[in-house]
Amino acid sequence: MDIILVPGFWLDASSWDEVTPPLLAAGHRVHPLTLPGLESAGAPRAGIGLRSHVDAVVATIDALDAPVVLVGHSGGGAIIHGAVDARPDRVLRAIYVDSGPLGDGGVINDDLPADGDEVPLPPWELFDDEDLTDLDDALRDMFRARAIPQPRGVAQDQQRLHDERRYNVPATVIACEFPSAMLIDMIGAGHPYVAELGRVREVDYVDLPTGHWPQFTRPAELGEAILAAVGRSS
Asked: What is the pTM of this model?
């Protein structure tokens, strides 16, 4: 199986390094992405928006011969959902890691403080306690040292979707900060945050209790959870 791994904000392809061993050991082909503007701290970020990142994922799908599984962490969940919308017939499953699908007209996070064309990794004080669970001082130092400013347009642009066949693509949500039962209750209550997720016809939920960056705090368990979800896509 071809598995495309889309990182969340401030991260490049290497953020998946400790997650992929179980996938490779099972014989899968992994394609961790470094998205436009995330190539280095000095990379140009002007003019790069949400669509640029969606298009980069779509181009990777189109370069492969077989159907794929998409994995998106955090803001990468919105990106893979845009790719599902663009290629609903090529995606066997979308796996959302502490994230979910972003509906038409939504934005990933326009509250993040920007500096010109980019959004640097904010101070830890700006994150909720739930975000930082298990992210100890050593991991925080590692993360900050490797963090790359996010293109501002990716955080602030509106999602644009066109093909309702996206709701036929099975999804798995790997819930970290908050238990999956809370998400299910929110869907039942009609909460707008999970409105798009509530429209997906087949959703599996997996609980992996930790903070917002399980690829750093529980990488082996995240790899196994992704592997299990991929197994349901064959």
From this structure: 0.97
CATH number, domain 2-231:
3.40.50.1820
Q: What is the largest CA-CA distance in the chain?
A: 45
168: its two tokens: 């036929």
Contact 79, 6 (CB under 8 A): yes
Q: pLDDT digit string (tens) for 21-74? A: 999 999 999 999 999 999 999 999 999 999 999 999 999 999 999 999 999 999
Per residue in 170-181, pLDDT tens? 999 999 999 999
Distance CA(126)–CA(129), nearest Å, equals: 9
Q: What is the C-alpha to C-alpha distance for residues 112 and 75, in angstroms, rounded to an integer? A: 12
Residue 121 CA to its chain's centroid (Å): 17
Report, in angstroms and rounded to the nearest whole number, the Rg of the chain calculated over CA atoms: 16
Element containing residue 77 per DSSP (H, E): helix 76-86
Pairing label, strands 118-119, 150-151:
antiparallel
Domain segments of the chain as ranges? 2-231
* Strands ordered across the beta sheet of 203-207: 29-32, 2-6, 68-73, 91-97, 171-175, 203-207
